[in-house]
Amino acid sequence: MAVRKSSSIGDQSVRDEPTATAVETSPASTPRRKRILLVDDDPEIVESMRVALEAMGYEVLIARDGNQGLALADTENPDLVILDMMMPKRSGFLVLERLRQTRKVPVRVIMITANEGSRHKAYAEMLGVDDYIRKPFAMDRLLDSVRRLLET
Q1: Quick one: which of 26, 49, 53, 82 is 20 to 30 A from 149 by CA?
Q2: Third-level CATH fold of 32-151
Q3: Domain extents for the chain?
């Protein structure tokens, strides 16, 4: 299946980063910045989101598949997860189900997908996703959602 990418999220050069890594950490003497976990297997989209989110002052963690995403969610306690629906090893739905089952305090989740089906959106909403964004999307759409969810 071909995935179209909007120019708003695909114009920057991509560098391959190690998988399942914390991109930055805050010094202990300053208040912790809001931490966002990106779980997506598309390096171009991940890099575009990472650059935009870091420019807004967020700490960004990156996982390249669902299993890595769950591992980082367990160890790093993100304030928000941006989760692709279709990924290797564990789909976004399975990651979302596990997050909802295992976390005492629910984490905010934005699901992004190239899937156009309304039943997928309904299922994501049933699992408690906070926002559902279809690809291609304007980066401002994602950033507005991130701001809104982290301010409440």
Answers
A1: 26
A2: Rossmann fold (3.40.50)
A3: 32-151
